Hints:
It is a single chain. The protein is α+β, with helices and mostly antiparallel strands. The chain has a single domain (17-181), classed as Maf protein. The protein has helices at 17-26, 31-49, 52-55, 80-90, 125-135, 164-168, 172-181, and strands at residues 60-69, 72-74, 94-105, 108-120, 157-161. The protein has a 5-stranded antiparallel β-sheet with strand order 2-1-3-4-5. A hairpin with a 2-residue loop joins strand 3 and strand 4 (108-120). Helix 1 (17-26) crosses helix 2 (31-49) and helix 4 packs antiparallel against helix 5. The longest helix is centred in the first third of the chain and has 19 residues, at 31-49. It is globular, with a radius of gyration of 17 Å. The termini are close together.
Amino acid sequence: xxxxxxxxxxxxxxxxxxxxxxxxxxxxxxxxxxxxxxxxxxxxxxxxxxxxxxxxxxxxxxxxxxxxxxxxxxxxxxxxxxxxxxxxxxxxxxxxxxxxxxxxxxxxxxxxxxxxxxxxxxxxxxxxxxxxxxxxxxxxxxxxxxxxxxxxxxxxxxxxxxxxxxxxxxxxxxxxxxxxxxxxxx
Length: 186
């Protein structure tokens, strides 16, 4: 967000992400639909939690990122074995990183997704060694798909097609365009 504006505050509210995901997918929705609904739910929950006098002056941004490999939506791994399994699944393949974003104010709401394609290196002895070192850090366990490209997970990546910052978790260029229409940011 600092790339877009120096004036922001981070707030969060609990939303039942798994229930939203299950509901959207049960209705025939796609991972894009899931990410849009999660972003909308997060922005709406924070917006509703604001005191009424703050709501009229606030713009809330909700975002959620997932990794999709084939038909599988990869969330955050629970442990080393699950992280290893996810990272192995991604090796040698191109997967999608999808971020849903909702920009919400009293008179405006825009929801969009950004998709970036990421290809991991093939699973050879070098990649296996990188994976083992990586899963022994704290990094994979709060990241969708078990990796963060901005740190040690970058070593696993072969190519990125699209918005790098989307893989980090926020498509800053597209978001800055939306906020620019609202005259927010630099």
